[in-house]
Amino acid sequence: MSEQNTILIVEDDEQLQRMLQSVLSQSGYQVVGAKSGAGALEQLSTHKVDAILLDLGLPDIDGKDVIRQAHAISAAPVVVISARGSEREKIAALDMGANDYVAKPFDAGELLARLRVALRLSRRGENAAAPAGKLQIDVETRRVIVEGRAVRLSRKEMELVRILAAANGAVVPQESLVEQIWGPTTETDHMNLRVLTWQVRRKIEPNAAVPQYLIAEAGEGYRLKLE
Ligand code: CA
Fold it and tell me: Does 141 or 14 have the greater pLDDT score?
């Protein structure tokens, strides 16, 4: 590991905080800790942090508000760790901008793997962010970053973007899109596809009426202009 990543651990349970610190430092990470939401935000403003491990149940600020505030001052990806392992909590955390979610009790190996993924995705994001006006796609969290603005897509919207992105700028025929998104048994319903492209454009295009990214090729299909 040539560069040492710094991880901020936000956890009010002292024993767990110590355990996480030792697991991460043994794996070669620099570690800073915080036991509250306010402490986390203070650490973020004084350290260069590469990723955040965040417990959702903190004594002062709700974990979801911490995610929002952390994103405002730092580009570090957030991996949520929580005892509240319900699907609803998980979706709420992801909607709030968390990159991933690990439920307690978790296995150290799994946690480290998730952390590596989060760091890799965020590095890729940084590199891709260099040229202005580019589209960055994170399939896992269903987030698209357009000109620095993050939007979250629904499952079907993400499917459309993912398929078009995989085509690398080439036109994908409407029939093929319908089949891949709604399944081979569906009748080719172009109306559904038009509605879906309209939804995606409304989210990703600066001006949905004059699309710059999701381009329709009349009578053929759609293509995604990645830059
Ligand atoms: Ca807690």
Answer: 14
**9 Cα to the center of ligand 1, angstroms:** 12
Q: What is the DSSP letter of 83?
A: S
Joined together, the tokens standing for residue 142 give 């269903």
CA of 223 to the centre of ligand 1 (A): 46
Domain that residue 182 falls in: 135-224
Same domain for 151 and 202, yes or no, is yes
Residue 52 Cα to ligand 1 middle (Å):
15
Name the pLDDT band for 186 (thresholds 50, 70, 90).
low
Instruction: Report the predicted TM-score, pTM, of the whole model to 2 decimal places.
Output: 0.57
Tokens of 199: 């939804």
Alpha-carbon distance values, 26 to 20, 22, 31, 209 (Å): 10, 6, 10, 53
185 — pLDDT class (breaks 50, 70, 90): low
| Count of structural domains within the chain | 2
Secondary structure in 3-state letters for 176-225: HHHHHHHCCCCCCCHHHHHHHHHHHHHHHCCCCCCCCCEEEECCCEEEEC
